[in-house]
Write a structure and sequence with these properties.
single chain, 424 residues, mainly alpha, two-stranded antiparallel sheet, three-stranded antiparallel β-sheet, 60% helix
């Protein structure tokens, strides 16, 4: 009875974490749901697990510092105020800190659950996405988000962005294909690219159809770091890296050469070339053509903030919102937007929050690789306060800490849940 009650509570708790994970990615089913209620219910479930002694806690000073730094990061430069917001951020910081303090097997279970759940959502959505190439399926009308900035046709389990007319990009039930590609890259690394798992295969196939340059690059970086940070011999790791880099170079070459003279250009019917290879071309100002996460307006504001010293503390949430509303062209994502709002101080606070997680666990080398992957993502999509960033990072840390070698890909799940591993 004890074991049954424990696992039921753990499943419910993990499902609530999964909803917070999805909500941070703006899944359309939760657009009208106040996530403060999800946070409160999650906290209540975690308290029930703790008081009922259904989970083991590993509380130490690092966990406490993590909670303090995460809350400070959430509050620094925020554009929301008032008791409700402060309360919501306190709940969020406590929930994530509690997850960090859980024992290894519970965190491994959470990673397993979220990986499976996310893969299932993408798999069902991808089926509809592909069917639309050959069939005309019934829809449920139009959806809009952020004052019609995003417009979709609603196919219940897939929302199609109406701007993707020529080449549809797979965004599943989320706002942007880039968001999907980014999180897939994180989960692939967290699960050590375990392609023995059907769920990992679904994630990878879904990544392909996002046509997301950021998702592809992050996955490539993640796989490179996976090879580099592995426990195999140095010679084995280096040989794998050489083969891997040669494969990437071959793909780029094949998709960028399209005539008898060998001139390097991409044909109009080459989807990979149009959406990916062209955006990798060198650019004098942006480094590569696909580096379009901010506008010239934001670039100018960022340079001005650096020159006058405002960049240290940031312009603050109120000024940030004011510029978005009144300054034409003040839009984008990536490190410039984040640092403009929260400053170098706020950015350092968040970095320290993640570093504490790395230092909490045994396999710091592999976790350092994941931190590098997150920092690479931060450059083009700076969402470090998303649960979809925080939860995989925390759960990955304990998963890899208990792996003795790269070939051991089985999950260690809590008691009765052990038969429900990801390797199925």
């Amino acid at each position: 009875m004890f074991s049954f009650e424990r696992n039921i509570l753990l499943y419910i708790y993990t499902f609530l974490l999964f909803l917070l994970f999805l909500d941070s990615m703006y899944i359309y089913y939760l657009w009208n749901v106040n996530n403060i209620f999800l946070g409160i219910i999650t906290l209540i479930l975690s308290i029930m697990l703790i008081l009922g002694r259904h989970v083991e806690l590993e509380i130490n000073s690092k966990c406490l510092w993590f909670a303090v730094l995460l809350f400070a990061s959430l509050m620094f430069g925020s554009y929301e105020n008032g008791f409700t917001y402060y309360f919501r951020m306190i709940i969020k910081a406590i929930n994530i800190a509690v997850l960090l303090s859980f024992a290894s097997e519970e965190k491994q279970f959470v990673l397993n659950f979220i990986t499976k759940g996310f893969a299932l959502i993408l798999g069902v959505s991808l089926t509809v996405f592909l069917l639309l190439y050959i069939l005309e399926l019934p829809d449920n009308g139009m959806l809009s988000y952020d004052d019609d900035r995003y417009l979709f046709v609603n196919y219940f389990v897939y929302i199609k962005n109406i701007s993707d007319i020529a080449i549809p990009r797979f965004n599943a039930v989320f706002l942007e294909p880039g968001h999907v590609g980014m999180i897939i890259a994180f989960l692939l690394y967290a699960n050590r690219f375990n392609f023995k798992s059907n769920y990992i295969k679904i994630l990878f196939i879904s990544l392909i159809f996002t046509w997301s340059l950021a998702g592809y690059v992050l996955t490539a970086i993640g796989f490179f770091l996976y090879l580099l940070m592995g426990t195999n011999s140095l010679v084995t790791r280096l040989s794998r890296i050489v083969v891997y880099l040669a494969l990437i170079a071959s793909v780029v070459y094949v998709n960028s050469v399209d005539n008898d003279e060998g001139e390097s250009f991409v044909s109009e019917d080459n989807i990979l070339g149009q959406l990916i290879i062209n955006r990798l071309e060198l650019d004098e100002e942006k480094f590569i053509a696909g580096n379009n996460r901010t506008t010239q307006v934001v670039d100018d504001d960022f340079e001005k903030a650096v020159d006058d010293g405002t960049i240290i503390m940031g312009i603050g949430g109120d000024e940030f919102v004011k510029r978005k509303e009144t300054e034409v062209g003040f839009t984008g994502s990536g490190y410039k937007m984040y640092i403009l709002q929260r400053g170098i101080i706020g950015t350092i606070l968040m970095l320290l929050t993640y570093i504490i997680v790395v230092r909490t666990h045994v396999n710091r080398k592999y976790m350092t690789g994941m931190l590098i992957l997150y920092m690479a993502s931060f450059l083009q999509r700076a969402y470090p306060i998303w649960e979809a960033w925080l939860i995989p990072f925390i759960c990955c840390s304990d998963f890899v800490a208990n792996e003795e070698d790269d070939e051991d890909d089985d999950y260690v799940l809590p008691e009765q849940a052990q038969t429900d591993g990801l390797t199925s």
